[in-house]
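Quick one: structure tokens for this chain, please?
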Amino acid sequence: MVAEEVIVRPVVTEKSNEEIQQGKYTFEVNKKATKVDIAKAVEKLFEVKVLKVNTMTVKGKTKRVGVHQGKTADWKKAVVTIDTVLAEKSYLTKGGKSVKMSKKYKDSIDEFMGA
């Protein structure tokens, strides 16, 4: 799946706005997308480091207009936790030499609230 097809739109509610301070962002995603697909899409589109992805299927509600009754569509929601503390990673190479690596990631998603 292409990254633009995986993420449908951000979900903006009171609860999702409160979770932004903890580095958790909520998106409506494609129903066929997996957690790995969602993590890769968010990392590619927003240039952040994804730590964890929680997904859930939201069942549609029964709606009524006059005597006619119908059901809204089911959709999939993903809560993505990003790394807000960007620290340098160090590892040992073959020769036993310590190498520090720091990737250029953002610590928040600015496009989420339309800023």
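The radius of gyration is 19 Å.
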